Amino acid sequence: MDKFTTLTGVAAPLPIINIDTDMIIPKQYLKTIKRTGLGSALFSEMRYKDDGSENPDFVLNKPAYRQSKIIVAGDNFGCGSSREHAPWALLDFGIRCVISTSFADIFYNNCFKNGILPIVVTPEQLALLMDDADRGSNATVTVDLASQTIKGPDGGTITFDIDPARKNILLEGLDDIASTLKHDAMIGGFEKKLSAERPWI
Length: 201
Fold this sequence. Notes:
Blueprint: E1 6-14, H1 21-24, H2 44-47, E2 70-73, H3 85-93, E3 97-100, H4 105-113, E4 117-120, H5 123-133, E5 140-144, E6 149-151, E7 157-159, H6 164-172, H7 176-181, H8 184-197
Parallel strand pairs: 1-2, 2-3, 3-4
Antiparallel strand pairs: 1-5, 5-6, 6-7
């Protein structure tokens, strides 16, 4: 998993509440178990018209936001079903950070397992960030995980809270397996001791 330290990129405004995982990646794309290739289907029901052509009014289809790395979204982002394809699609598109006032628990947890930083801010802070994001190609935001800050295009800074363990996972780029292997020596020692004390196991 790629480390998350500092991210600078264009922030796309998505001022919609209750964006669920079916909106992020519709059910017809869930047949694959690959983590790649889903970026083109991200928000597909909003990004594309019925004939398959792009909807020019959707934010990620606008020239200024096609390379967005950050989404500034409305309350309760990632609600709905628990599909891990949702963070896969975001990551494959290039999104490494989502900022909202709240997230659904399962989606929030899945973000950390896939190298995406979900940031919870206050409604007042979200309003400021949404205003920054509305600036189009000038909506460059810098997220510094180590200092837990978000710096806007005018230099204004917002701080955010994050669980220290989850912060460390992203800073070191550790998935669940890599996190477990950090304790490989302890695990091996325990198994050796257990084998000596209970050889019948």
